[in-house]
Amino acid sequence: MRQQIAAANWKMNLTYQQGEQLLDGILNANIQLAAHQSAVFAVPFPYLVMATQKLSGRNNYFASAQNCSDQKSGAYTGEVAAEMLKSINIRYCVLGHSERREYFFEGNQSLAKKVELCLANDITPIFCCGETLSIREVGAQEGFVETQLMESLFHFTEEDVRKVVIAYEPIWAIGTGKTASVEQAQEMHAHIRGLFAKKYNQATAQHIPILYGGSVKAANAGELFHSPDVDGGLVGGASLNATEFTSIIRALK
Ligand code: PGA
């Protein structure tokens, strides 16, 4: 079975101590993950080492960064390089979250460089894509997401692209309490998988996990994750609550 992933995106929330408590609460639930399942925690940079230490010794629990620089190293004050993440054993990095695209003007070309640097450092990019409400209202979402993938990912070799995780996050569903319907999610996930099949091949398309993000919570994770092309979720708000997030982990296929 394809890799199934419950990914927490803490964004810029929680103090260090609150973060420790939250991880303890989730780990206390002692959920044993199958070989094809992972729980990933995208925590703020200053908490990465703490999170890695807490998660070590647990099978398939990983800490993740929420971003990295599009430059290798050098005079870029305030930036964090993929190589630095690798040096503290980070294996995942969220890239191109819609908040970074909107507030920090990240574009598809810069994201292509970030993906490349992550792959060069054995870090799995969790590459976010998704449309705004106005794009969906005119029915242009499929073409919009295709351009995001084309400009950031489709120049990679088959071998490299297989190392990427996709997170489809319709922007109108993020933090709004408005979830895409199971049908809307499945339809877009199938479309995305189809794009990989067209650009690469069916085997590659079938290999790549596609997570859904946007108001995932314990109450809807089960039905969303049940869709054939939904391979888990990237979860913001509900990942800040131990009971909610443990239920979401349990909802993985
Ligand atoms: P949300 O955020 O679950 O709070 O909607 C999801 C995300 O932005 O990754």
Walk me through this protein's architecture.
- This protein has a single domain (4-26, 34-172, 199-217, 230-238), classed as Alpha-Beta Barrel (TIM Barrel), CATH 3.20.20.70.
- The chain has helices spanning 16-28, 48-55, 82-87, 98-103, 108-120, 133-137, 141-152, 158-161, 182-199, 202-207, 218-226, 242-250; strands at 4-9, 37-42, 61-65, 92-95, 124-129, 165-168, 210-213, 232-235.
- The protein is of the alpha/beta class.
- The protein has an eight-stranded parallel β-barrel, surrounded by six helices.
- 2-phosphoglycolic acid (PGA) binds next to strand 8.
Question: Tags for this entry?
Answer:
eight-stranded parallel beta barrel, alpha/beta, TIM Barrel, 15% strand
Write the layout of secondary structure elements.
Blueprint: E1 4-9, H1 16-28, E2 37-42, H2 48-55, E3 61-65, H3 82-87, E4 92-95, H4 98-103, H5 108-120, E5 124-129, H6 133-137, H7 141-152, H8 158-161, E6 165-168, H9 182-199, H10 202-207, E7 210-213, H11 218-226, E8 232-235, H12 242-250
Parallel strand pairs: 1-2, 1-8, 2-3, 3-4, 4-5, 5-6, 6-7, 7-8
Helix pairs in contact: 1-2, 1-12, 5-7
The protein binds 2-phosphoglycolic acid.
CATH fold name, please? TIM Barrel
Structural class: alpha/beta
The CATH class turns out to be Alpha Beta
Number of helices: 12
**Unique ligands:** 2-phosphoglycolic acid
- Strand residues, percent: 15-25%
The gross shape turns out to be globular
Would you list the SSEs in sequence order as H and E?
Answer: EHEHEHEHHEHHHEHHEHEH
| Strand arrangement in the largest pleated sheet | 1-2-3-4-5-6-7-8
